[in-house]
Model the fold of this input.
Amino acid sequence: MALGALSQPSLPDRIAGASYSPAKLKVLDGAYDGVWRRIADDVGERPEAIQAAQLKLANVILALAERGIWRVATLRQAALDIMFEPPTEL
Done:
């Protein structure tokens, strides 16, 4: 699954018009936390790198949810796959 297809709209745009039930928020939170625990050590310690990775992960999780993926385990795995995709060449 290519990240480019999942990167629009931006996270603030998604959040501005979003409304999630408590159950869906729990799924989003569980997926985000699970992936972040797996990748945090690979991101490094630079605040800019951490912020960029967290923003990318949040965008990926929300984009997958917008596509109808609402199982924590499925969201986690799909997000991990996308986060570890090698960059594409222009």
Q: What stands out?
A: DSSP finds four helices and no strands in the chain. The helical segments are 11-16, 22-43, 47-66, 72-83. Residues 22-43 form the longest helix (22 residues). Confidence is low (pLDDT under 50) at residues 1-8.
